Amino acid sequence: MADVYIEDVQVGMALPQINKGPLQRIQLVRYAGASRDFNPIHVIEESAREAGLGGVIAHGMLTMAFVGQMLTDWAGVDRLRKFGVRFIAMVRPDDVISCKGTVVDRFVHDGDQLITCEVWAENARGERVAQGEAVLSLPSKRP
Amino acid sequence: MADVYIEDVQVGMALPQINKGPLQRIQLVRYAGASRDFNPIHVIEESAREAGLGGVIAHGMLTMAFVGQMLTDWAGVDRLRKFGVRFIAMVRPDDVISCKGTVVDRFVHDGDQLITCEVWAENARGERVAQGEAVLSLPSKRP
Q1: Are residues B2 and B51 in the same domain?
Q2: Less packed terminus of chain A by CB within 10 Å, N or C?
Q3: Alpha helices in chain A (DSSP H)
Q4: Are residues B32 and B101 in the same domain?
């Protein structure tokens, strides 16, 4: 992670993309343990089929975490002020997920230099699987 | 758990049995997270089949934990001095595991009142899946 300053950021700029995957089933097992979300549709093939999903699907929050990693890899974990996504499509084992974003606003609030980013995750077919918005507070080069 | 005193215990006596299961696949996922043993043969059907196991098998340490629970339910968690089992047969989802034991020795060491128990776990067909030995230190009614 390099230091990112508000002066380096312009509206319309793309955030550095990260790619995650191919997603492994065992990662879903690990994420179940880490998140304490033991819904069997994420880890037990049979249960996912019975639920009509055709097989296990990733936890939505894992996809969100990938998008979060893109933001914090770029700007640092202490910079994120607000972050939300909605889940659009299912993510499955073997999917490769690309996390992307664009700066859509830059503003000052209570003396903080802030940016709003549109962020999303897409699969290898270019379909968005999650999308949302993040607000980051960035340091300034000027004291 | 009732208090168990050395005076209540005779060689040849059976320990109170506990039954665990039917074993759920999701319990193996939970145990993977709790133990940090993410070997896919315990949680991913496909990997277990590829490994020639015909399907997922329980972590041996989970079976051992069941036997441990029989001991600590009976005598208390602070009473176990030594505990080992060897794994004999595979445990699979839907198995019901009965944990049993017998007191095989009673002795004094360094002023402690100790018992040795033969302990084992068996499936619903009466096949032993794990067996071993435990040493417990028990309190005396005499001051």
Answers
A1: no
A2: C
A3: 25-35, 45-50, 60-75
A4: no
